[in-house]
Structure formats: C-alpha cells, structure tokens
Amino acid sequence: MTIDGITPAKILRPESIDELSQALRAETGAIVPVGAATQTFFGNPLRRADCALDLTRLSRITEYNPADLTIHVEAGVTLEQLQHALLENKQFLPLDPWNGPRATIGGIAAANAQGPFRATGTIRDWIIGMKVVHVDGRISKTGGRVVKNVTGYDLAKLYTGSLGTLVVIAEISLKLRARFARTATARVRCENAAAAAGLLSAIRSSPLNPVSCEWVGPENAVWIRFGEHPSAVDWQLRNLPAADWQIIEGAGESAEWEKLRQHYHELGSVMLRVIGLPGTVSEIVSEYKPKAWIAHVLNGIVLMAVSTSDEIRAIRSRYRVVVEKAPVEMRREVGTFAPAPAEYDLMKKMKEAFDPEGRLNPGRHVDGESSK
User: Fold this and answer.
1) For the domain 267-330, what is the CATH code?
2) Which fold, 180-256?
3) Confidence (pLDDT) at 151
4) Is 270 in contact with 327 (CB distance < 8 Å)?
5) What's the whole-model pTM score?
6) Distances (CA, A) of 90 to 60, 180, 365
7) DSSP strand E in 35-102: where?
8) Which fold does the domain 1-179+339-372 belong to in CATH?
9) Helices assigned H by DSSP within 90-154
10) R_g of the chain, CA atoms, integer Å
C-alpha cells in the first residue's frame, strides 16, 4: 500500500472496534486509516506513515431497523453491501459518490465523497450518529441511534470530511428513505454552451424537482434525473422545457449513469471543485473555458479539468476552490482547500485539540497547508 509516494512500515487489520482501540493505544507513530482506498488521491499530500489501519474487516451491519428507517454499520461496510441489505424492505441510502459502490461507508464519510445525486444531500445529511476511536485509543460516541436527536454537540458533522485527521470513524448510524417507486433520466445534447445555459436556466425556474441535474462538457449534454411516484415522474417528463430529450429508464438508465461516473474519472489528472451558486454555473464555464467539466446545476458546483497551478490560483481569486484531484507536487504547491485565515486558525485548533501530536493522517487536511 502506497499513498502519495509513502509506504507505511506496517499494516494492521483490526476485526472489531475493541481491536481498533487497542491498535491505536499501542501505536506511537503516524497512523493512516484506510478503507477501500478509492479516494486516496484526495486531500493534501501525506507527510509520513508508520502504520496503516486497514478498516475493511470492520464490515458488519450491527443493527437495522426498517420500521424506523435507520441502520448502523461499521466503517468497513461498502456502499454496495449496504444497499443490497436494504433491498428487501425497498429502502436505500440516497448516495452515489463518484468513487463508486465499492467505497466503504467510513471512507465516504471521512472524505464527504459526493456524486450527481446532490439534490438529496451528501452523506453528512444522512448521518445521525457515530462511534469513533481517538488517537489514544479512547472510544466515544456522538449523536444517537434514532433520527430525532436533541442534545449535545453534533460532532459527526465535524468528523465528516475531516479525512481521518481528527479521529478514526469506527461505526456510523444512518437514516434511510424508501426507494423511489420509479426513476427516469432525460438527456439532450445542446448545440453550444449558450444553448445549454439557457436550457438549465429554464429548468431551475420551473416547478420540476429533479434528484440530479448535470451539465457535461465539452459536449454540452444536459442530464436530468427524476425519482418519485410514477405519476409524479410522468408529470415532470411531460413538463420538461422544449428540447430533443432522450428518455432512459430501467437497466439502461443505471448503465448510462455508470458511464457518467467513468467520464468523471477521465476528466483529467488535475480536477477542481469550483463552488459557486446555481446561477453562476454558466459564468464559471464561460469565463474559464475548461477542456472538460461536470456541473452540478442545482447547487452551483463545477467539477472542471485544468492544467496548471496558475489556473488554480486565478479561479481561486474569485471562487472557493477545492482540488478534487492532482499530482502530489501540485497539491503540495497550491494546497487542496486553501481556507481563509480565520477558517485555517479554527480548523488548526480543532486538529491540535483532537490530535495534539499530529499523528492521524499527518498533513492530509489543513495541517498540510499554511495560513494564506
């Protein structure tokens, strides 16, 4: 196992949370938690690694309450394993991260991994509680095991997206939803970027309620997906803005979205997550003219391919930018997150409070950057 050019001296594979706790208590060097390793390219470059903690053997669904729409899983449970367990009760967790169904739930939470299903939220919106292990081996809980939690700090929101630099996520409690009775995708290729922008503006101002809406370039294809009661899906398909829509349903629909996932991985070796507003998506694309992009039209996030550090700096002068993927040296040069000074100071204090010796995934989050 090699991450950012660094190979850990040893790999531990705990099979229970107690074993994970014991391993952390015994280790004195730098510790790197790893799940399915589907997103090790994300984050600032790892600085050192004495021990890797492979969490894939923490793969049990510890409790499932269909009537309450809740499930509790260990961090090594994969998204595919989870969704399969929910099939019998016609329930699902509405996530489709770009790193795919073999990603572990713990890894998805640690990276706050996202995909086109953004209208239903990210994993942060579906977590109701966590069990975590601290760098000294202590086990603690945050949130609860029911949907309605009313007391205490919501530390699960802090741990989600922290890339395993604060604690090691061991178990996650999630709320669920009923499966869509029907899904359908409408897709059209527009003549140019201006035509696509006009069509997307019409969609945003309409009463349509899609679960995904993507603008894919450079081919200027618009993908819009609906999930609801069959009659509601019918109504939305009938009320799409005028265009030469191709309607895709059934097994073919899933296959097409899998092709879009592959397109994401082929965008390029340097990819940015540019965070704007829904109304600024077309401005971002027209101003910076990326060679390829996938824009989440409903929330203003544009995933775009770029080539140089100078391009990253230029876009950051106007928009918040997270480096989605880049070679190690480029991530080291420009930083993955580039937080504002006040944000940096706050997150640095959090890191120092939870991991004062800087041993958990050292360098992967803000501790790998300097205050701007």
Assistant:
1) 3.30.70
2) Alpha-Beta Plaits (3.30.70)
3) 58
4) yes
5) 0.94
6) 20, 9, 37
7) 51-54, 61-65, 70-74, 91-92
8) 3.30.465
9) 105-111
10) 21
